[in-house]
Amino acid sequence: MEKILIVEDDVAVSDLIRLNLEIAGYDSRQAFNGSEALQLIAGYAPNLILLDVNLPDKDGFEIMGELKSCNLPVILLTARGSVADKVKGLRMGADDYIVKPFESMELIARIEAVLRRYGVKHDQLVFGELEVNLEERIVRSGNLVIDLTMKEFELLILLIRNKNKAMSRERMLELVWGYEYIGETRTIDIHIQKIRKKLKLEDHIKTVYKFGYRLEDHK
């Protein structure tokens, strides 16, 4: 399991990131200032750092300067949207730069892309006879390629990464559609029906009464 250090002084934002990383299958630790982050790195040995630029003691650029010898991938998180800040971060060695607020799926996708570049993250998920290539966005069952829409594909990834866990419709909408959906949740039911049929997962995707769905691994 890949390890990610979250360096973010806003506790609510940090907790939300950690929850999303847990759902996506990552191990994570939290640091709320630069000094704490630098102390954690040696013992935790993260595979990637999510680093907020605006921290109470040292800003993200200062911390990046102290991390040069560690050769760790860094994604900068900031509310700043100026081109100058982006250029500064990238020139200092940041692997990516994401401006807050951001959607959960966008953050996970950027993390996956950086980890793949470093040879840490594999670009394939397997469930039974299904093989899901994350980079090519292709689903195969044996030699057969199965066409999925973008949302069907992302929903399948979410289910596989959380196999044997019950997930609410609301949570799936938030993670895949990128917002908190209020009211009608039938869009999830429609997409689940299509995934079940296309991938022959009728016996694996179980309905959790008045809650959501669970992808069951029968091994």
TrEMBL record:
Keywords: DNA-binding, Phosphoprotein, Transcription, Transcription regulation, Two-component regulatory system. The keyword DNA-binding applies. The keyword Nucleotidyltransferase does not apply. Residues 122-217 bind DNA. Residues 122-217 form the OmpR/PhoB-type domain. One of its GO terms (cellular component) is cytosol. Residues 3-115 form the Response regulatory domain. It holds the Pfam family Trans_reg_C. GO terms for biological process: regulation of DNA-templated transcription. The modification 4-aspartylphosphate is found at D52. GO terms for molecular function: phosphorelay response regulator activity; transcription cis-regulatory region binding. It comes from the Bacteria. This is DNA-binding response OmpR family regulator. It comes from Cohnella lupini.
